[in-house]
Write a structure and sequence with these properties.
444 residues; 16% strand; globular; alpha/beta; Rossmann fold
Length: 444
Amino acid sequence: MIERTYKSLLILLLLLLTGCAASQMHGFENTYYSYNVPQLLLDKIALKLRQEGLVDARVGRDSVGRVQLAGSYQTEDEVDRAFVIVQSIVGLKSTSPFYPDNIRRKRWELEAGEQLARIAQAQRSAPRPEHRVALIIGINTFRDSRHWLPIQGEDDAAVVQRAAAQAGYTVTSLLGRQATKASIEAALRNIEADLRPTDSLFIYVSSHGEQPLPSANGNDERKMSIIAWDSGDAAINNRTDYELNLYRTAVPDTLLQKLAKKPTRNTRILIDTCYSGEMLKGLPDESGGYIAQANGGAAERAGISMAAWTGKAYTSKAIRFSDDAPARTQAAKRTQPQASAAASDAIDGERAYTIITATSEGEQSLGPPIQVGEFLLPDQRRTLRGSYFTQAFFAYLDVYAGQVEPAFAAARDFTNRKAQEVTGGARTQVPRQFSTRSAERNRL
């Protein structure tokens, strides 16, 4: 009797442990229960695909019940549009990130041809002295004020512009209404056409980001686009139509990434923005209830890999960094040893390269209320106007004579303390940095 009791308890314990393990497995959470997508929504996806001219696109279900793209596509742009449709109807979590296999013209093939043309052009170009080139984008308010809340992009960009000019950069600034899709893309093309390996490049962006899409690299990596001043259309009420319009009117991140990846003497990337799926709260439809249910009522968020800026494939925006040891606990570092090594391998060790973001994955970039706009930097007794991280970082750059590492560490610690202070401990904001080993050149 006692033996049977022990066996029963052992079986019960094993079942409990199995259930716990399954719930912790990546991609296994809320499997068939949460991913039981109604047939009504699948039919809606299929109809929208046909309306968008994606006549050979199909959808099915992956092994855990998420909606998965199938069928055939002419280009990866068609795949992106299909992902926009699926995600807008069932949400990020219920959309399988796996790319379809049948794509006639892969993006990497087109980009490889462009890269060969750039190499040939560089070989024909005569050597010249170093140019220091900066592109600074900042927007406070957007034409579509219905869906895009005001931020402090122009206030921050003004500080960055002054610092870059003092450091000897030739600055192209696009602020507010100047930062249209057409003007941003033209500036990117002009800088890319003239940039040489002997030059230094600095890019700063403060704007909103479009809903992330799966990338061809897999591994749940995501890619995003930059919201320009004229992105989106407030007159569109349907969620899917709005997101498709946004996809067409935002600035493709591949343009910025290709510029950032060009060989230079020194490249600096600084992104101060928060990316989340909350931007479409004002577009309720029959998909909204299902998306909320699948996420337990919480807003959807997706992590963004740094590979797009530093690796060989253009996959996603830099928002999750591997080499962030000062911001992680020792336990967290022990759980992710491979990620740091992979990130280091993605960049040529001889190239001076720094990427900084104002947040970690799933966090918002915070600042004082936009009507106030000002806050105090206590240890310097300075009043600053703009977002916490950008303003603090450039204030500390003054203190540390342009040295990036100590300025970043001080701004990171201040930003996280301030975020917890103003939210009553409800939120954190831990900026992240990745740099190559070329520390002697790591100066703005």
